[in-house]
Amino acid sequence: MVIISLLLPLFLGFLLIGLRELDVKWHKWISVLGAISHLICSVLIFYHVESQGVVVTHLGGWLAPFGISFAVDHLNALMILVTSVIYVSGVVYSWSEVPHEGSYRHFYPLVHFLILGVSGAFLTGDYFNMYVWYEVMILSSFGLLVFTPLREQFDGILKYAILNFIASSLFLAGLGILYGTLGSLNIADVTQKIWQGVVGSESIWAASFFMAFGFLMKAGVFPLYQWLPSSYHLPLFSVSALFAGLLTKVGLYSAIRLFSLTLAPYGQTLGPVLLVVALLTMGFGVLGAVGSFHIRKILGFHIVSQIGYMLLAVSFYSEWALAAAIFYICHHILVKSNLYLIGGVVQATQGTEDLKETGYGWVTTPFLGICFIIAGFSLGGIPPLSGFWAKYLVFKEGLHLKHYGAVIVGVLVSLLTLFSMVKIWQEAFWKKFSQPRLIKASVYSLVPRYVAISFLALLTLSISLYPTWLVEQSRQAADTIVKGSRYVQGVMEKGER
Questions:
Q1: Which segment of 89-93, 162-166, 250-254 scores lowest on mean pLDDT?
Q2: Residue 363 pLDDT greater than 90, yes or no
Q3: Could you tell me if 378 and 367 are in contact, meaning their C-beta atoms sit under 8 angstroms apart?
Q4: What is the band of 268 on the pLDDT scale with cuts at 50, 70, 90?
Q5: What is the C-alpha separation between 418 and 434, in angstroms, rounded?
Q6: DSSP-assigned beta bridge partners for residue 186
Q7: If you ran DSSP here, which 8-state letter would residue 100 be given?
Q8: Which helix (H) or strand (E) is 58 found in, with range?
Q9: Given this model, what pLDDT does residue 495 score?
């Protein structure tokens, strides 16, 4: 199943390139069926990990650390599961967004290759192969970003290209130092050697600095986050939702592997540094959202601020704090992707994303307003929605560890986040014009979009009203990371020959 989850989007991408002369509607049917198959595969992987523990596959019969390993524990089983959920939602939503003709014959292959890169980065058991999967993901995202190029997009695309190039270069430099020091880049093997202290710490610190810089830049942390709000408002809304839900989370996932597993012995030194970076990320991100009146720019700045919450939990270096970070990641992927999809319907029905020009949405699209309340107010932390539980877990552990200042900053950022969501609600849904605006998109064309939005809204409600299941899964994922010997032994001793 692990290998199939990678071969499936790879096969779909090349298949649709080969069938590029077909009408795009056939690409849509194939893509939807493929995305659903990927979701089924991810569910099977998750339940296998739930029952068997760490699942490891060594390609070609070469055991770690010599071969290419894929290792799945509770953490990346959760990540691949939510990835598949966003995969299905994005492809279904694009059904009415992507025209049936023109250059869009190349759209769906790029989407599948993007999912291939994301899935590979989540599932790999090797830092170098993580770099390779990053490149697959970044090249695909470049293609999707410039798919419908406009003159005003140049600035955002340039920032995206340059900063991601810098991040990849730093990551690769760190890998070179690490390999030269330890002779291995297998995550489990590297972790084992660092924990045993087999080499001097200077070269490990140098490698870790470059790798961490690359991961955190891709995650969109302060001060290297400007590429994110400058570019995520440019592509189709289905693409923005995929980017918002998945790309920064790959960087954060990699940072969790590095900080909480491989570099766990250095936690007392790293924790305060990560805490300061997290607080600055939260503050600058939310201030950017408060000052914007463009829906996707507001949401882009909020990705930055919410990444700060997740990094804050990681910086606490405790098992429950890490569980809170994992819960937060899963909640945020669902909610943030859905907010971008909702923004697409606002643009389709009202003709603009500028909040100053929108209004009356509660009358013309009441169901959309309900979905926005679920997603937007969850992001703001209103109980009993999932965002409340995510922030509650972070704040509770922060208070337990006596990080009172960090908790106060988190509460203030949460209030400003809620202010931004209320601003979107007030301007796009509640504000009245003298004459109601006509719906610009046909009701029929919006059906696939509402299906995707409803799907994510129902999942958000599920974890809001019954958070215990996701809390327990997050705790198990954190336990596997904190007690890293399980992961290390699973990779070094297991394998399919």
A1: 162-166
A2: no
A3: no
A4: confident
A5: 28
A6: 126
A7: S
A8: strand 55-58
A9: 43
Other CB atoms within a 10 A radius of the CB of residue 116 amount to 23
Per-residue exposure over 95-109, b if at least 16 CB sit within 10 Å of its own CB, e if not: bbbbeeeeebbbbbb
Q: How far apart are CA 135 and CA 294, in angstroms?
A: 30
Q: What secondary structure letter does DSSP report for 124?
A: B
pLDDT single digits (tens) 451-486: 999 999 999 999 999 999 999 999 999 998 888 777
Nearest to 339 by CA among 307, 304, 371, 385: 371
Exposed/middle/buried for residue 203 (C-beta within 10 Å: 0-12, 13-18, 19+): middle
Distance of CA 222 to the CA centre of its chain: 17
Segment (H or E) for 57: strand 55-58
- In sequence order, the β-bridge partners of residue 58 are 69
Return mean pLDDT, the chain. Answer: 87
Letter string b/e over residues 301-337, b meaning 16 or more CB atoms within 10 A of that residue's CB: bbbbbbbbbbbbbbbbbbbbbbbbbbbbbbbbbbbbb
The predicted pLDDT at position 222 comes to 87
Asked if the bond preceding 436 is cis, omega within 30° of 0, the reply is: no
- Supply the DSSP string of 347-403, one letter for each residue: HHHHS-SBGGG---HHHH-HHHHHHHHHHHHHHTT-TTSHHHHHHHHHHHHHHHTT-
Quick: pLDDT tens for 204-247: 888 889 999 889 988 889 888 888 887 888 788 999 999 999 99
The span from the CA of 5 to the CA of 80, in Å, is 9
Give 41-53 pLDDT, tens digit per residue: 999 999 999 888 8
Count the neighbouring beta carbons within 10 Å of the beta carbon of residue 489: 14
Q: Which residues contact 198 (CB under 8 A, 6 or more apart)?
A: 182
Closest CA to 57 of 112, 134, 5: 5
Rounded to two decimals, the pTM is: 0.93
Higher pLDDT, 180 or 102: 180
CA gyration radius for the chain? 22
